[in-house]
Amino acid sequence: MERIGHDTSLERFNSGFAGGHAGGDEMMAKGLVETLVHGREPLASVEDGIRSCVVAFAIDEAMREKQIVDIKPWWDAAGIGMEEGRKLT
Q1: For residue 77, which of 68, 69, 4 has the smallest C-alpha distance?
Q2: pLDDT tens digits along 27-38
């Protein structure tokens, strides 16, 4: 892994969590079960998921190109603004 635009070395640490994504996968699976089986409101909205994907795709591009990328085109392509609270159109 590289940190683009930084001259510092990478630091590795033990978070104390086990499992995929430091335990996040298990938490998401439990949340999904609560929604599907028990009818609870989802922990995240569709818009939250799209925002997460936009950021992940931009990070992938930055790592692939080994440079900082402008994320605004990703937001525009997804139909959402960069500002907090703007809804999908």
Answers
A1: 69
A2: 888 888 899 898
- Alpha carbon 88 to its chain centroid, in Å, reads 17
Contact yes or no for 68/5 (Cβ under 8 A)? yes
Please tell me the distance from the alpha carbon of residue 74 to that of residue 36, in angstroms, as a whole number. Answer: 31
Mean pLDDT on 4-16 = 63
**Separation CA 80–CA 53 (nearest Å):** 12
Of 80, 64, 62, which Cα lies nearest the Cα of 72?
A: 80
Instruction: Extract the tokens encoding 64.
Output: 């692939």
> pTM (2 decimals)?
0.57
Q: Which two tokens stand for residue 82?
A: 């960069």
